Amino acid sequence: MRAETLEALAAAGRERRAAILVTDLESGDSRVVAEDGSFSEDPFGDELMARFRSGRSGLVESAHGKAMLTVRLPPPRLVIIGAVHIAQALAPMAGIAGLDVTIIDPRTGFAAVGRFPGARLYPIWPEEALAEVPLDAFTALAAMTHDPKIDDQPLAAALVAGCFYVGALGSRKTHAKRLDRLVSLGVDPVAAARIRAPIGLDIGAQSPAEIAVAVLAEVIEALRRRGGDT
After folding, report:
1. How far is residue 56 from each of residues 48, 161, 166, 211, 212, measured CA to CA in Å?
2. What is the pTM of this model?
3. How much is the CA Rg of the chain, to the nearest whole Å?
């Protein structure tokens, strides 16, 4: 493998960008394809898109030959704003599902180690925490405090960063007021419409644990449909 190919893969890893190593099985030549839309004319274009969504490597064949597609996706993350009861159920579930979980809440009475054993916990304001853990396209953000002073800034930041999932707890009436606030802060109304609220798939969830299941299912759905219709 050429040095420039290795460096392209390493750079994608450092920058938390998705990439696919395409290896021609006849010539042995390899190249790196980035998830930036530039592969629309690629001989394996449709298959590349599908692999970026699924994260699965494998053999492909077209009129142009056979190739091995080795998919490199950044580990998906879930940032939870609000160390609430739902978060207590959601954090371990998300960890089991393979998500790297971060919990942010400036209210130290909620963001206590005893309530979230083993979790990455930031008992500081979201603006400070997100300076240390920047959002990106492989991050999901779930805002759960019901407090605009805590939720609104990270929601706006998640939309700017292109997070694959942005959700917020609250009724439709509450969310309508939230959208008004975000737009007044300069958030594009089209971008704001990406926020999933009420949060979670509609499975009739009632308890904090059931709501956590609904949220996690919605996050996984969004992860596997990145770049496609949701």
Report:
1. 10, 25, 24, 29, 26
2. 0.85
3. 20
Asked whether residue 111 falls in the same domain as residue 49, the answer is: no
Among the listed residues 86, 97, 103, the one whose alpha carbon sits nearest the alpha carbon of residue 212: 86
Instruction: Please report which helix (H) or strand (E) contains residue 222, including its range.
Output: helix 208-224
Averaged pLDDT of the chain: 92
Residue carrying the six token digits 């089991």: 96
pLDDT value at position 230?
43
Amino acid at 205: A
Residue 186: helix, strand or coil by DSSP? coil
Compute CA distances 187 → 113, 184, 197, 226, whole Å.
Answer: 34, 7, 16, 22
Check which CATH number belongs to the domain holding 170 and give it: 3.40.50.720
- Does residue 229 sit within a domain? no
Write down which residue in 26, 45, 72 finishes a domain. 72
> Which among 109, 208, 102 has a CA at the least distance from the CA of 158?
102
The token pair that represents 214 in the structure block: 């609904």
Write out pLDDT tens, residues 39-67.
Answer: 777 888 888 888 988 889 999 987 778 99
